[in-house]
Amino acid sequence: MKLGSIALLVIALSGCGGDSSTEPTCTGDGCVCVDTACSCTAGTDCKAECFDSACAFACTTGAKCEGKTTDALTATCNDTSMCKGQGGDASTVTCNAMSNCDFKVGAMSTVACNAESTCKLEVDGGAIACNDASACTVKCLGDCKTTCAAGAECAVSCGAAGTAATMCSAGVFACGPC
Questions:
Q1: 78-113: per-residue pLDDT in tens?
Q2: 24-66: pLDDT as tens digits
Q3: Given phi > 0 = left and psi -120 to 50 = alpha, else beta, which region is 147?
Q4: Pairing of strands 172-175, 166-169
Q5: 120, 141 in Cβ contact below 8 A?
Q6: CA geometry: angle at 44 spanning 32 and 113, to 5°?
Q7: 3-class secondary-structure state, position 12
């Protein structure tokens, strides 16, 4: 009798939340996810939640979007889109054209702000490139380097206290070693 009750309990529990996969969800106009790739086209309130899965997120046609994951986030923000998000370690963020980006990402992350994009970033560690005529505000919580092109505007601070970054060479700022 006890063995039968235990078997029945195991079967019942395995059917309740036993699948730990976390498929991304996407809400709002213009938001679509296929496997772990989500996109938002011309949506005004597009949100992709990838939970604990690595995922890719693209925002185009003047969309307003948000992407979140605790794993690596690969985000691309194009044209005049407004993008924000949170990603874990090894995230990659690219902001193009006249996009407006606001991201918090983990260690070993890579961020590129291109053309006339505006980027507000909080990075646990990694490499940030502010290219062309972009405007970047970077808060680095760990070791990271920010490269600021001649035509770009950059403000880089380090740690929770927001101390000034070290200028390693013209246009290269570091939090941690140069």
A1: 999 999 999 999 999 999 999 999 999 999 999 999
A2: 999 998 899 999 999 999 888 899 999 999 999 999 999 999 9
A3: beta
A4: antiparallel
A5: no
A6: 85
A7: helix
Distance CA 73, CA 126 (A): 14
Q: How many helices (H) and strands (E) does the chain have?
A: 1, 19
In whole angstroms, what is the distance from residue 118 CA to residue 153 CA?
9
Dihedral (CA of 110, 120, 117, 74) sign? positive
3-state secondary structure of 159: coil
3-state SS class at 8: helix
Specify the length of the chain in residues.
Answer: 178
In this prediction the pTM is 0.87
